[in-house]
Amino acid sequence: MDVLYFSCCYLSYAPRLKKVAAATAAVLNKAGVKFGILGDKEGCCGESIRKTGNEELFRKLAKENIQNFIDNGVRKILVSSPHSYHTFKNEYPEFMVNFEVVYVTDYLDELIRDGRLKLDKEYAKKVTYHDPVTWVATTASMSSRGRS
Questions:
Q1: CATH, domain range 3-144
Q2: Which of 31, 40, 70, 101 could hold 88 in an S-S bridge, CB 3.0 to 4.6 Å?
Q3: What is the pTM of this model?
C-alpha cells in the first residue's frame, strides 16, 4: 500500500475517538485515495513509552512497526496524532528508514487544492478545528520556511 492511515492508539481504543478514525477513512474514500490500514497489526508508535524511559520496549515496538510497514509496501504514513507524527518523522530514522510522514489535516488540504476532495455545499455553521498544541509546536518551523 502506498498510503497507510495510521490512526494511533488514542483513536483506536478511545470509544469517542473511534468515530474520528472512521470519519477520516470515509473522507479518504470519498476523495478516491487508495489507502490501507494495518488493523490488528498496528502497534503503538512508542512515543509515550520512550518518554517514560522504557527504551527497550520502544525499540521493540519501532522495529515491529517498521517491519510491518516494509512488509506492506508503505511509502507514505498518514497520521492523526502529533505524537505519531513526531516519532515516525524524527525518531524512526535512527533505525535507518525514512518514510514520508504526513499529518491528516495537511493531506486533506492537499486533496482539496488538487481538486480530489470537493467542498461544494455551504455549511452554515461556524467550525473550529482544534489542532493539538504538540502539532503546532512540531510544525512551527515549517511555517517559518513558507509552508503553512
A1: 3.40.50
A2: 101
A3: 0.81
